Each structure stands twice: as structure tokens, then as C-alpha cells.
Amino acid sequence: MPEPAAFAAGQRVRVRAADPDGHTRAPRYVRGHTGRVVESQGRWPLADDRATGAAEPRVETVYTVAFPARELWGEGTHEVTVDLWESYLEQAAEERA
Amino acid sequence: MSGEHASSTVAVRVRRLEERLVAAGVVGDDQLDAILTKLLNGASPVNGARVTARAWTDPGFKERLLADANTALPELGLSMTGGIQEQRLKVVENTTEVHNVLVCTLCSCYPIGLLGPSPSWYKSEAYRSRVVRDPRSVLAEFGLELPDDVTVTVWDSSAESRYMVLPRRPDGTDGLGEEELARLVTREGLIGTAAV
């Protein structure tokens, strides 16, 4: 399990591409894609664990992560922000200047 | 994604689920009624409109609202504690540069306490799948044409946060008081599918 608040605002993160067997709240359209952390929303019980009825669900930091439309769809000028639990995310390489 | 939320089918499923839960002794009718009453009593877009009008007329409140909406809401006698656990509220401000619009692509998360029950289109697969991909076209279908230089941000509430859009105060409303301003605000303005 990742350490608390592993990511900071402004940091680039990639949504893990894994497709879990059970319930998850990582929308499919952001999996495998890279975005930027907007802010931390504090720590919340992991939806994947709560869905199994686990007595003690893991509690993780949830992040607001912004994705440029081009990253998600290959086109568009808008931005989509998604709320993602820490274990859905991994560190991504910083963009080259 | 689950399919269309036809309310009649959902109502039947909810009733069956309630019966099973009550029969199994997991929850009592009285408990269910108490939770629903607490959640739905006073749940109305009038609340979101009051918050908006206060933010338009009180810069200090607006600053507190945008920084931490949960601690600002009690100033108007409101809170996000109506459900099973307190939900985090994030208010996102429309400006001349940015227009915000809300969606829940996974299901139908929505700030019921501030906006009332959600419109049926909010739960439709068409809205949920299209607004993240091509928000400008979707907004245009709602009659909202945005200038090209305005950036659109779509907020997909996929976890425990709920969102509310703070619309821009319309021009020519300088003479209006807080109550009159609140009457200008629509549910669609608070979702972001209308200007105000």
C-alpha cells in the first residue's frame, strides 16, 4: 500500500492500466493515461474494498487529477478532472521542456 | 457503464432491495425513512442558488466557499452531512476564461442537498459519455454557446467529492439584492449546462 499523500499538487501521474475483477472507481477512459495532480481531497475509504464489504477497507488519499482532452481522446482543447484513489496512480515522468 | 436509468425500473428494484434488507433484519423501515427524510428534506436547487447569490454579493464568503466549501456552507445554515457520511464539496468558479461543467461518468453522483434530485438527462448514458469527450457540442445542444477563448473544464465526480458550479454573475444585475439574485440562478447553471 502506498504511503499517505504520495503525490503533490502539480505532479504528473499515470493511472494504472490494470482492469480489476471487482468494483473500482477508476473510470476506464482514464486508465493508462497521464494527468497532473490538482489537489489532495484528504483520505477516504477505498471504494474497491468497501464494495466487497471488507470490515476494514483501506483508507487512502484521493486526488483530483486533470487530464488534457488531447491525452484522453487525441483531440479537443478542454480538460477533464477525475477523482482517483492513490492506489490507482503511479508516478509519471515529467514532460521534457 | 450501466445503461439508462429508467426511473420506473429503478423504483421497482429499490423497493425489492428494501424489502429484502428489512426482511433480513439488516435495516428497519423506520431507519430507512429517517435517513431518506434527513437527506431529502429541503434538498432543492434553491440552496445552491442561495449559496451563489451570497458569493456574488460577499467577496469574503466567496473566498471561503472556493477554498473550503464544507466550512463555508454552515454560514447559510447548509451542510453536506445529509447522507451516510459527510461528503466533500468542491465549488468551481466560472470566469471569463474558464467554464466548468459537472458529470458522473460511472453512475450519477450529484450534490442532492444543494441541487435537489438530479435531472433525468444527467443520468443518461448519452450525457455521461459525451460530455467528457466533446463538452462544447453537448453544451451547444443545451443552448450554451461558449466563445472560443473560454476553456472548458469537465469535473467527473468519481469518488467521494461532490461539485457545484459557481456561475458568473450576469451583467446588469448591480442593483439587485441577494434574494433577487438567487432567483436568477437555475439548476442547470449550477451543473454548468447553462450560463446561470
Automatic annotation (TrEMBL), chain A:
- Record field: transmembrane: none
Stretches assigned to the Nitrile hydratase beta subunit domain? 3-90
SUPFAM superfamilies in alphabetical order: Electron transport accessory proteins
Q: Which organism is it from?
A: Streptomyces ochraceiscleroticus
Q: Does the keyword Lyase apply?
A: yes
Task: Please state the Enzyme Commission number of this protein.
Answer: 4.2.1.84
Which one Pfam family would you cite for this protein? NHase_beta_C
Would I find Nucleus among this entry's keywords?
no
Name of this protein = SH3-like domain-containing protein
Q: What class of enzyme is it?
A: lyase
Keywords per UniProt: Lyase
| Domain of life the protein comes from | Bacteria
Q: What GO molecular function annotations does the UniProt record carry, in alphabetical order?
A: nitrile hydratase activity
UniProtKB/TrEMBL annotation, chain B:
EC annotation? Answer: 4.2.1.84
Query: Which InterPro entries does this one have?
Result: CN_Hdrase_a/SCN_Hdrase_g_sf, CN_Hdrtase_a/SCN_Hdrlase_g, Nitrile_hydratase_asu
A GO MF annotation of the entry reads: nitrile hydratase activity
Keyword field: Lyase, Metal-binding
Give a yes or no for keyword Lyase in this entry. yes
- List the Pfam families hit by this protein, alphabetically: NHase_alpha (PF02979)
Domain Nitrile hydratase alpha/Thiocyanate hydrolase gamma, chain residue ranges per copy: 9-194
Q: Which NCBIfam families match?
A: nitrile_alph
Return the protein name: Nitrile hydratase subunit alpha
